[in-house]
Design brief:
TIM Barrel; 6-stranded parallel beta sheet; binds 3-phosphoglyceric acid
Length: 221
């Protein structure tokens, strides 16, 4: 077991200064450098690499070699996923759902953990274990902002990170909600973007930032 000895990340402001978490399902290690450079240049400064391909952990390790980048692991579904990712440099971790044993391990490993929630019961489980910064997933499919409007008055201490279906058109609507700390998503890498073209990747990531109103880029503290 590797305990995270890097400077631990504790808050959104610290690891996602522009309130955007790019979610990447990596298909080639050759894409890492262009994506890392683009994310750093845009000011987004963080990336969540999902454990959905055979090269995810190798890619995570490569991203973690960029000292300016805060690297996290996504699609964490069991303790082994979390341990392996922390071993190669992940300093935050995201799950599609919540399991207490993963939450406890994340605390032991000194990793910022974002449990995924879709219902009030899941929110209550995560809250009772001390987690109040929660990924709301899959956001659009679950009713998006109207569902957040129903949940947030019940859980005023929870901040959500909606993920799933976020794009350049709806990102401002989400970020404008006081209950939303940040958004996650893959939209900046989508469409017909050629991930082998570093210039195109940089433009796409910078465009994703430019689509956000300046007033929504910084979280109120
Ligand atoms: C995730 O892993 O959090 C989501 O799959 C990202 O959703 P998106 O691809 O719709 O942005």
């Amino acid at each position: 077991m590797t305990i995270n000895t890097r400077v631990p990340v504790r808050s959104i402001n610290q690891f996602a200064p522009l309130r955007i978490i790019p979610v990447l399902t990596i298909k080639s290690l050759a894409h890492v450098d262009a994506i890392a450079d683009a994310v750093i240049k845009s000011g987004i400064n963080n990336i969540e690499v999902t454990l959905r391909t055979d090269i995810s952990l190798q890619a995570l390790k490569k991203f973690a070699s960029y000292s300016e980048l805060v690297v996290g692991v996504g699609s964490v579904k069991n303790k082994e996923d979390l341990e392996r990712a922390v071993d190669v440099g992940a300093v935050f971790a995201v799950s599609p759902g919540y399991m207490q044993e993963i939450g406890k391990l994340a605390q032991d490993l000194n990793v910022l953990y974002l449990p995924g929630v879709a219902t009030s019961t899941e929110i209550m489980c995560a809250l009772s274990d001390g987690y109040n910064l929660l990924k709301f997933f899959p956001a659009e499919q679950l009713g998006g902002i109207s569902t957040l409007n129903a949940l947030s008055p019940v859980f005023p201490n929870v901040k959500f990170i909606p993920t799933g279906g976020i794009n350049g058109k709806n990102v401002n609507d989400y970020l404008a909600k006081p209950c939303v700390a940040a958004v996650g998503g893959s939209w900046m890498f989508g469409g017909d973007l050629d991930l082998n073209n570093a210039t195109a990747v940089e433009q796409a990531v910078i465009k994703a930032v430019e689509q956000v109103s300046p007033v929504n880029l910084l979280e109120e503290t």
